[in-house]
Design goal:
single chain; 272 residues; mainly alpha; 79% helix
């Protein structure tokens, strides 16, 4: 394995992608909206409701489905205060996975499809690397930025969430084991899933937009997680999040094995 060439291509891909407006804008706007805007907006509304002592029958129903031990840990809080902490810790948790998924998909969509649009793919396929090394370089070029965006997003969210939960309920709640598992175990797996699907798509289409649209379909399972929790079908727990990460990593192995078995640079040249 020519690791020097692999890292050189991966580094070049990341640097080129981060200089592209179509890549950079989503990497800035989406984290700000999700990790800052949503918790702050919901926190301000919850804080106002707490100070005005506004009753909420919805919170009474929500309290009946709280995770085991949640009531004891946050005893003495009002329904609105407990509801906001529940939102921060559990309801919002699946939405966090949008960050690494989106970031890796955006960068990966620029891998082969972007090279075609910039007319630089021909030079790339003639580099002294094997097909597997070239594919690995493209994967690393998307996975590293995607994972970093996820980790930075978690740090920002933890700071913002703690400020808002302290404002609403006088408590600091993050980091906790569930969110640490999300950030360091499930998040990188989600980034790998997003880029695996998108790199395969990028190698088969001709434009960045086509590759990104196909890769964005991997966000659908996150939407199902959000809907499932909101409907009370299940509640995320430490063991469930750990199992989710294990399933994602196993799925990544299958996707990357398929990609390695089917990827051929000669097929890329045929599409030029």
């Amino acid at each position: 394995m020519n690791w020097g060439a692999v890292w050189a291509i991966a580094r070049k891909d990341a640097m080129v992608a981060l200089r592209t407006r179509a890549v950079v804008l989503p990497l800035i706007i989406v984290p700000l909206v999700l990790m800052v805007g949503v918790p702050v907006l919901v926190g301000l509304i919850s804080g106002m409701a707490t100070r005005l002592d506004v009753p909420s029958s919805d919170m009474t129903e929500l309290a009946q489905s709280l995770p085991a031990g949640f009531g004891e840990q946050y005893a003495g809080l009002s329904e609105v205060q407990a509801g906001y902490i529940y939102f921060i810790l559990y309801l919002f948790a699946p939405m966090y996975l949008v960050l690494p998924l989106m970031a890796s998909s955006v960068v990966a969509a620029d891998s082969f499809a972007g090279e075609k649009e910039r007319k630089t793919l021909e030079a790339l396929v003639y580099t002294p690397t094997t097909d597997r090394e070239l594919l690995l370089a493209k994967i690393l070029g998307g996975w590293i930025p995607g994972s970093l965006v996820g980790l930075v997003g978690f740090i920002i969210y933890a700071i913002v969430a703690d400020i808002m939960t302290f404002y609403v309920a006088g408590r600091i709640v993050l980091p906790n084991p569930l969110w640490l598992l999300l950030a360091f175990w499930v998040g990188p797996a989600a980034a790998a899933l997003g880029l695996g699907v998108t790199v395969i798509a990028s190698s088969r289409v001709n434009t960045f937009q086509e590759a990104y649209q196909i890769g964005s379909l991997v966000v659908l399972p996150v939407v199902l997680l959000v809907v499932g929790q909101a409907a009370g079908t299940f509640i995320l727990s430490d063991w469930l999040v750990a199992l989710m990460g294990l399933v994602l990593w196993a799925l990544n192995l299958v996707i990357f094995a398929i990609a390695a078995a089917t990827f051929r640079r000669t097929a890329l040249m045929a599409r030029l």
